[in-house]
Structure formats: structure tokens, C-alpha cells
Amino acid sequence: MGDTDEQSAWGFETRAIHAGQDPDPVSGAVVVPISLSTTFAQDEVGQHKGYEYSRSGNPTRTAYETQVAALEDARHGLAFASGLAAEDNVLRLLAPGQRVLLGNDAYGGTFRLISKVHTHLAWTAVDLLDLDALVAAWPSDTALVWLETPTNPLLRCFDIEAITAIAHERGAMVCVDNTFATPFLQQPLSLGADIVVHSATKYLGGHSDVVGGFLALSDDELAQRLRFTQNAAGAVPAPFDCYLTLRGVKTLAVRMERHCANARAVVDLLVGHPAVERVLYPQLPDHPGHAAAARQMRDFGGMVSFTLRGGRDAALRVAAATELFTLGESLGAVESLIEHPGQMTHASAAGSPLEVPDHLIRLSVGIESAHDLVADLEQALTTA
Ligand code: P1T
Questions:
Q1: Which stretches in the chain have pLDDT values below 70?
Q2: Fewest CB within 10 A of the end CB: N or C in the chain?
Q3: 107 is catalytic
């Protein structure tokens, strides 16, 4: 796979709507059909139209894989049944005993996958904001650096280009989880990263109605190995899920612009609010990694976290008091969500170097009217 020269000259929004999505040659249908067939006819043994069996390849999946690869400026795109399934495929590249260097803030499920499922791998959690410390502490058996930027849930921003240079000098690969930024705001491969991973469940899908994962990369040999595991381990998405995600991605650019604008309105309320201890948002000048974010991101995203002066109980009260912000896990969809990472998304990191503060609240700011979101938070904060 890989986009054509014509496609790579297109702007982001054009690629989102046209890459991999030519009208159907049989019917002229403008919308990519949902190909439900599990098997595909062969003229002679081994002679077919590019598809044999739907786990190995499916036309709806191809359209979606081509579309998102084009957005990440990647030669290859691979879709999976969930973000964790995509991550699992990357971790399978490593041999027993090899080490993963993991940024010390990340989705709790990613940490659980590395530490509790891939128990044959070694791992070290490091502060990727401190590059001198990273170089000084570099374990010689490191095969893979794994980082989110912005991170979940503290929204720390790491310098992809600098970290990749350090890793490559020492013979390690770099995998960037681009879920929070999306390719609209940040393209890690263009900064040197080897693999981009997504929970497509979030901004790519964008409507809280499909679970999915995605890998984007340009190295042909690495892509061949990952495509082998995608088929051999079989954690592929259903055609309907591919269709839903492809449909969501078409509007990614306009959604992200609104997510960012609404997040700014929410940050304006939270900064200086008497109940709020600290606001975490990459645009704030004192935010950890602000300079890297300003360099490598087009805008600062739709996720906002904050801590409460009143501690854990105040955080739990605020999380229960919002009306428009729905209390729930996940993020990145049109509707706003609020959650308590310590007891929800990051419970599996308790007691680890990735444990999160218990007076922390995470907001996924949706694309509703900004003034309604601000008013909802204002009333919820009266309970803090
Ligand atoms: O849920 P799944 O599609 O398997 O994706 C896992 C995942 C990977 N990477 C990041 C940065 C994530 O945030 C997630 C999932 N996160 C949540 C469900 C959450 O509420 O934080």
C-alpha cells in the first residue's frame, strides 16, 4: 500500500476525504462500501483480485488503512480491533529480555500490557522531559522507546525529534502514541519516529461508537513484519468498524479545530479559579514540555486536566456534579467527558512509577457550544 504521488500533494483535509476512497468501480458509489464477505473468489489457485480471506485483507479495511496512512504521511497503515491490539503487535517485535523505555506518564492499559502481559520483556519508566537524565541512565538492552505526547492524563509533551535522535544513536526504535494529538496536530514520523500508534476509538473515530487501533509507519521491512503479525495473530477490526472509523476521520480536521478552541475556553475558566490548584494544558507557558509542544504541534489539543485544592474528595464531587460533561472513561469524541484517572482509566497504574495524583480530573472537551461547557464546569466547581 502507500499513497500515490497525486495523493501526497493533497492537503490534509483532502486526503481525509479522498485518500483510498475512489468511487466504487462497479456501482460508482461515492461512499466506500462495507465489504462483509469473509472470502473472495479465485480464478485459479492463487489468482485473485488482491483479497483471499477477510482476516488477511478486506476492501473496506484497505480504504481506511490508506486514508489514515495518508494523514500520518506514512507508507503503510495497519488497522486493529483496539488500540491495545495495535500496541500488542508492536511489542511482539521485541525478543524476550529486550527492554522498553516508557515515558513515566501513559495510559494505564498500555502500562498494564507491557508490565503484566509482555512479562518476557524488561521495562523502565523514565522522565522523558529530562533528556540529560535519559542519556545518563540509558539501559544498554533498550530496544524500544515508547512515548505518548501529550501524555494521558498529565498532558506532558515530549520532544519527539530529540528523543528519536538519542534512541537511534543507541540502536533503539521509537513508537509514538499519537492518540491525543492526532495527525492533524502532530505527525511523529516526520520528526523521525519509527512507528505511530493510535487508539482509533478516540479522535479518529470521534463519535464514541467504535473501538479500534491503528499503526502507521514508512519502513517497508518493519511494516512487513507487523502485517505478518496482524494476520497471524488476527486482532483485526470488522468491516463495519473500519467503515465507521473511516467515516469519522473524514471530519477530523474540523472537529480538532473546535476541540482546541473549546479547550481554550475551558482553560480560561480554570486558570485562576479559586477551587483549582493547577491546570495542565500544553499551551500554558509553564506546562511541562510547552516548548516542545509549540514546536511540534499545530495547536494544543482538546484534552485538559486539573488538580483541585480540596483534594481527592473535591475531585470526586466535581466529577459527579457536571451535567453536560458525562462522567465516563474514554475521550476524543464530539461529546464532552469528565473522569477521575486515579480510580478510573489509570487504576492499573496504582503503586507504579506511573501512578497519577488522586486529586486530578481529566476533561475531554467536546465540540458543543463553548459557553455551555464553561457554564457546566462553573456550576460543578461550586461543589469542590
Ligand atoms: O481502548 P483502546 O482502543 O484499546 O486504546 C488504548 C489506548 C491507547 N493509547 C491511549 C493514549 C489511550 O488513551 C488508550 C485508551 N484510553 C482510554 C480508554 C482512556 O479513557 O484514557
A1: 1-5
A2: N
A3: yes
H or E element at residue 256: helix 252-270
Nearest CA to ligand 1 atom 13: 107
55 is catalytic: yes
Minimal-distance CA residue to ligand 1 atom 12: 107
Q: CATH says 4-250 is which class?
A: alpha beta
Rounded to 10 deg, the angle between the 252-270 and 370-381 helix axes is 40
SS (H, E, C) 14-28: HHHHHCCCCCCCCCC
Cα(210) to centroid(ligand 1), Å: 12
pLDDT for 1 equals 38
Q: What is the pLDDT of residue 8?
A: 75
For ligand 1, the distance from its centroid to the CA atom of residue 11, given in whole angstroms, is: 28
Q: What tens digit of pLDDT does each residue of 340-370 get?
A: 999 999 998 999 999 999 999 999 999 999 9
Q: Which grid coordinates are listed for 288?
A: 511541562
Q: How far apart are the first and last CA of the chain?
A: 52
Burial class (CB in 10 A: 0-12, 13-18, 19+), 219: middle
Would you list the domain boundaries of the chain?
A: 4-250, 253-381
Rg of the Cα trace of the chain? 21
- pLDDT tens for 36-60 read 999 999 999 999 999 999 999 999 9
Tell me, which fold does domain 253-381 have in CATH? Aspartate Aminotransferase, domain 1 (3.90.1150)
- pLDDT score for 4: 60
Q: For ligand 1, what atom is nearest to the CA of residue 180?
A: 11
Residue 188: per-residue pLDDT: 98
Please confirm, yes or no, whether 49 is among the known catalytic residues: no
51 counts as catalytic = no
pLDDT of 2 reads: 43
Measured in Å, residue 39 CA sits from the centre of ligand 1 at: 31
Cell of 224: 512487513
